[in-house]
Design a protein that fits this description.
270 residues; alpha/beta; five-stranded mixed β-sheet; 10 helices; 10 strands; globular
């Protein structure tokens, strides 16, 4: 019998992630791909990629837990959990203390208040509009005709602070066009992208003194965490592999559901 493995899948609206834990609670593999239009295909591809990276066969899977927007579209999942519970579990596993989890996703943002024991006290979601999300960042970068990997470099060279005031991605794009017409440089506009992301989150509701940021935006653009700390006065931490925190939480849930002793926090994040 192969040693058991526990798979967590986070099927997001834009990106899907997988974390595979071994019987010792260590990460055996991670996988990431664009979700596309078929969640089932994304889940199948992530399963195959994670197993291939771990050098394992599917027969080794002891349990699979799915979370995220497309969690109900994973036919081989043994259980399904909300992204709220999985992000809280994954973040708490990293820090082991009371915190506010701020997840900036592809289409929505979440604030999750996590108690000292890891349970969820309450949570907030953003408006239906995708302003301040990953889709917002991509759309404005497209309007500026800049590759995503360059916008933080431009933002760091800004000479003044700008915040796009619109609460709608479409209106924000119009606002950017107006600022370009008025002669605003790309550096300041890129800074404005990240200021707006932080502003949209901060306006959702109160945040405590310790924030854990998760999701692809926090992982790809460290400036977001710095701006969040400056705006809120809180200590802000971005876990290693921040985009996989939800998938890690799902994998931990799978291990727990299978009766496997939960691993140490450090082991699961290496």
């Amino acid at each position: 019998m192969p040693a058991p493995l526990y798979l967590g899948l986070d099927l997001g609206s834009s990106w899907s992630k997988a974390v595979l834990l071994d019987q010792k609670g260590q990460v055996a593999a991670r996988a990431l791909r664009r979700t596309g239009i078929r969640f089932e295909e994304a889940a199948d591809a992530l399963l195959g990629e994670a197993l291939a990276r771990a050098g394992a066969e599917q027969s080794a899977l002891a349990r699979v837990t799915a979370t995220g927007y497309g969690r109900r579209n994973v036919p081989f999942a043994d259980s399904r959990r909300t992204e709220i519970s999985c992000h809280a579990k994954g973040a708490w596993h990293h820090v082991g203390r009371e915190c506010d989890v701020v997840d900036i996703g592809g289409q929505d943002n979440k604030i999750i208040h996590v108690r000292a024991d890891g349970s969820v006290a309450n949570f907030l979601m953003n408006r239906k509009c995708a302003a301040g999300t990953g889709a917002f960042v991509e759309e404005i970068a497209h309007r500026l005709e800049l590759p995503l990997e360059k916008i933080e470099e431009y933002a760091e060279a800004a000479t003044k602070e700008i915040t796009l005031s619109s609460f709608c991605t479409v209106f924000s794009a119009t606002e950017v066009i107006k600022l370009i017409r008025e002669g605003e440089g790309p550096e300041n506009l890129c800074r404005g992208i990240f200021n707006s992301v932080v502003a949209r989150v901060a306006e959702m509701g109160p945040l405590g003194s310790f924030i854990v940021m998760t999701g692809g935006v926090a992982a790809a653009f460290p400036v977001v965490a710095r701006l969040m700390a400056a705006r809120t006065g809180a200590r802000v931490e971005v876990p290693p592999f921040a985009q996989y925190v939800g998938a890690l939480g799902a994998a931990l849930a799978a291990a727990q559901e299978a009766g496997c002793p939960l691993p140490s926090r450090e082991a699961s994040l290496t």
